[in-house]
Amino acid sequence: MRQTRVVQIGYNWSKESAGSAQAIYNFAEALDTIVISFSRDSRLRYDDDLEIEQFHIPYFESALNRYSYTWSSKKRKAEQLIANSDLLICHGLFRYCYDWAIGIAIKHKIPYWIIPHGSLDPYVYTYRTLSKRIWFTLKGNKAFSQASALIFSTEKELLKAQSFIDTERFQIVHWPVSYVDTSNAESAKIRIRSLHSIPYNAKVLLFIGRFHPSKRPLETIKVVANAHDKNIYLLMIGPDSDVLTANECYKFCKDNHFTNIRFAKPVFDMSKFNYYMAADAFISLSCRENFGYTVAEAMASGIPVILSPGNDLSKDISPLNCGWMLKDDSLNSAIDAVNEIAETPTDILAKMGQRGQHWARTELTKERFRANINALVQKTILTHAR
Question: In sequence order, which ranges of 287-330 are alpha helices (DSSP H)?
């Protein structure tokens, strides 16, 4: 039997691309796909050790259409790859590369999936609203109407999206996370806390994410700095964004004399799980996380979580009693949760973390993801052939 040919389209596929990049990797691992990435800089590989067929197309920004200037010879090869495929998977919206790829798929009668990655969250329409409305009129409505499936990673992401789209061809598939061996959690706790001058008996909250206003790192700092118990620390890890950096956050702490905030360099390999295991809880006050790989990784590592309403995974895990699902985005609500963690015995926090870990090890396995996605691929191809 001929192997199914699947092509994925991504944008700036690299370590710094966070969730969407990880999802592309997960799909490539499950389906043995070709990845076509439109890239505007030199960050062309997610990982030097990946054995995934990759094809990178450089593009050049312009004032008129910042995503349309690409090498035509590269695009011709990419078009051939899509035309000869059985399925196209687009990881995102609003960019030229996705519109172009979907146009090629329609031209050659290739079925395609759209994975919005949070692009249909109402928060996204609080900025550049006019251009996105124009995109919906000119491109989006047609793209959605002809898609074989729209893939969402959580139920809450789908519910948010339904105010923008009208289709029954949706699927909810949780992204997978690696199995985390937590047998060395104690040694990780000792090593990481010593490395960052954090007392062994302190309560430690972990922030992992880009230093970007949408992730609310400055608000997270304020929350922990204003907790009643001064023996609670915040450890922050993540890459800089183009509008906020770790150094700026560090200066903010220094200027305000916040002494219980620590910073570490970004980590993208499996060593990041040492930081999860060294913490007592994970905190995300993000405005928007359509899945939240770091939340899932925290759960897989066996620690409870504090999540803002913007974390869509909170709806799925709320019944588990594995953390604090905040009702609103106010700093007071977050401070109350941090104070509760400070007062909660370590063994109780550990039990909360174990409940989340059990769910992650059951619902978020790579084997489960592979089976779900492969079944959906076969269904799509059979339906399209009729």
Answer: 293-300, 313-317
Number of H helices, E strands in the chain: 15, 14
DSSP state letter for 87: E
**Cα 276 to Cα 10, 83, 109, 217, 296, distances in angstroms:** 28, 43, 45, 17, 11
Q: Which domains does the chain have, with CATH numbers?
A: 6-176+365-385 (3.40.50.2000), 184-364 (3.40.50.2000)
Residue 116 near residue 152 (C-beta atoms within 8 A): yes
Residues of the chain with pLDDT under 70: 1-2, 14-19, 40-51, 60-71, 167, 386
pTM score above 0.85: yes
Q: Among 316, 288, 298, 292, which residue's Cα sits nearest to residue 156?
A: 316
Decide: 321 and 297 in contact? Cβ < 8 Å: no
Q: Are 193 and 199 in contact (CB under 8 A)?
A: yes
Q: How far is CA 34 from CA 53, 131, 283, in A?
A: 5, 31, 35
